[in-house]
Amino acid sequence: MVGLLSCLSAAIGYTLYTWLLQKPQPLEHLGFLCLCASVHWLPFNVIAYIIMFKDIPASPLTFSMTIAIGYLVHGIILTFLTSVLHRILSSSKQENRTLMWFCHRLTTSLHLKFGKFLSGTEAFCMYLHVLGAKIGSHCSIRAINPITDPELVLIGDGVHLGDFSRIVTGFHSSNGYVHGPVKVEANSVIGSQGLVLPGSVVESNVILGALSVAPVNSTLRTGGVFVGSQNPVMVKNITHWLDDRIEEMDNKYKTVLGNLAANFAAATLKVKSRYFHRIGATGKGSLRVYDTVHGLPDHKIFSPGKCYPIIIRHSNCLSSDDDARLDPRGAAIRILSNETSILDLTLKTGNAFHARTIGDFATWLVCGAAAREEHVKHAPHIRDAMWGSLRNTDSYTELHYYSNVCRLFRFENGDEMYVKFKLRPFDEMIGEDSGKVDPTGLLPPETGAIPRDENDKRPLLFLDDDFKRRVSSREQVRYVLQFQFRHVPNDEAECETILDCTKPWDESEYPYVEVGEIIIDQLLSDEESVNLEFNPFLKCREIDVIRATSCTQSASMDHGRSVVYSICQHLRNNRPLPEYWRNFLEHSDVKVDLTGCPMAARIKKPDTQNVTLARPWYKTVWMMSGQPLLQLIIPYFLMGMVIFTPLNMVLHLKPHYVNQFSQLSWLIPGFWVGSGVLAGVVCGLAKWVLVGKKKEGETVMIWSTSVYLDTIWQAVRTVVGEYFMEMVSGSVLFGLWMNLMGSHIAWSHGAYVDSMGAVLNPEMVTVEPYGCVGRDALLFGHVYDGEGGKVKFGKIKVKEAGFVGSRAVAMPGVVVANGGNLGALSLAMKEEIIK
Fold first, then answer.
1. 157 pLDDT exceeds 90?
2. DSSP 3-state of 155
3. Which residues of 49-79 are buried (b: 16+ CB within 10 A; e: fewer)?
4. What are the structural domains of the chain?
5. Per the CB 3.0–4.6 Å rule, which of 138, 170, 524, 734 could disulfide with 528?
6. Per-residue pLDDT tens digits for 687-734
7. How crowded is residue 377: how many other Cβ atoms within 10 Å of its Cβ?
8. Is the CB of residue 474 less than 8 Å from the CB of residue 444?
9. What residues contact 63, with CB distance under 8 A and at least 6 apart?
């Protein structure tokens, strides 16, 4: 039936041809056309021509245009017939499996014979729409699979379906035939080789990564970047640049932290200042790491002799108007490199904190005095932490400050350690108990609420005055930075114990190591001090923040407070609050009134959503008309030009071998190889004429002229590949062909490439001696990742003896190192190094 439909379209084309010429044509022409339409393989069509005819048109242009227009007309008629038959049968096929199977064969055949050459054009969207799919505007649908049930597909505006992605509306499984609608909403991206299965919904602004799967009946939530197959994981959320700290939290953690953040945000808006550590004295100077640090492995940042600019801010915890009140004292440290912050540390007096987790901290704030006292009766170390943090002092500079929480250090030798920080006065005679307050009850009164002695006549901000005087003096202010570190255990329970900030580490087992000396020799103005924003989440690979996914984990204390700090600092400094933080606050149980906030107007949601891939009307017209015509006509026109002369030669020799079929059968393969090699050369020349040479790191817009021309060349490459070059993949000839188009294939030194997927961007591919690229592997020298319609280019290198397995996918910038192995069906992400 599929063959019959193809023959019928050829017969209609023959009828139109004779009507236009106004004279009958030999019936053998009809037979030839029906035969070609049924088989639809160019080499077979040429062989049929050799057998059935004695000569060809005298002009190569006429011959080539006849082939090109013939394929175009046949494809259009076949599309019309298929769509009509498909719509007639669609109402009955759900109840009749035979009809369903038959419709699937029709749409698959049409795609392979005609539809795939419309890839990347608006005509392809129209083609799917004619078959019954619902397609939005400004879509970019590339070389996807045949869609067997187009009426079950809904594609929103601005959707990009990447090369070789698959939309599957039904498949057979052990539970029978599984089928259902597929919905891809506006501005979403399905990555290369991505798979969307029946019943799945890909919501707006989603990116489904290369080789990833949207499972059956799944929903990929708005803004997510998903990777994986059985259960795709949201690795981040791109809606309004969402904060990965929030995205990785479980629901309870989000609720607890959201309520905490909302309370502090409301307080910040009310007082228009910091909630904690409101008044401070700030100076700047330098940190010099000692030439020898005993027991500390080589570290990129804290390496011997390095020197960094530094800012330090001292403050009280809650007391904002009287330094004489008993209070924990703080020291916030910022370490800079080339005016860029590389590490922010928030330290305080006392070697322990009173809450192990962010959940404990939130409970402590709201539970009341009676509940707190009952709690510390069963946890006396919490009482010690509370009293141990208070200090009664004459100078910020004569106290010891502790981080309480850990950071994760990564050393040059690959080791990882948990590290705590301490700041001590340079004068070793000042002990850890300096300014310590003796307990007078079960718990101290509310922090910062203990009034000064009535006989105390010191100025209200005497600590601020003392710090400024010391910085301006000849002696300046000097500290010693110390580390306390221990190896990261494999046991999760032991990690929880180590990260518990309510219990200090045993200094006899894990002593503090002196790392460097801090000298503060300049003062910052009060305005500069107020505008400072310390970010506890500031991190780098060498000094990382320990993540938490639950509010019951010890790491949540540091991880969670960094979110609260960020939100409150934005509000305090009148900066626009990002949408994801606004949503975070709005979904909490505490309602924050942002109407009086200076940035309220700037965070209002837009009424309409912009289409990422929007294009001007004239480009849409071009992609509906000129672009698809060129993609269909140019490849077959060039093949006609390639075939013309060799075909003439064969037909000239044919009478001499008409009774010697064995010799004729040798002549035809010779023709095929000769014309195939010539087609490969023409394809290479077309590549340089249409595409030129792309450069690594180059960026072009997806609707640009260069992409249009590249898509035309991809159609030429597809036809040439089907005609001959796919047959020689893995051979020396294939390596030479790739080199002709700009690749660097060491074919003379054992390099092996067995995939047409390596020719997508040939100038971006390098395969060194004995490197191997397996069957159907895809080497993408370009990528579209949803960033404003930009296509980016990057090289892929398979170094000596490197291996890329069958159907593996390598994205731009991938390097398969010497002897490296990228296994079959594996994915190498952008700029990944495979060892």
1. yes
2. strand
3. bbeeeeebeeebeebbbbbbbbbbbbbebbb
4. 150-155+167-239 (2.160.10.10), 243-273+549-608 (no CATH), 275-546 (2.40.180.10), 617-834 (no CATH)
5. 524
6. 999 999 988 888 899 999 999 999 999 999 999 999 999 999 999 999
7. 11
8. no
9. 56, 57, 640, 644
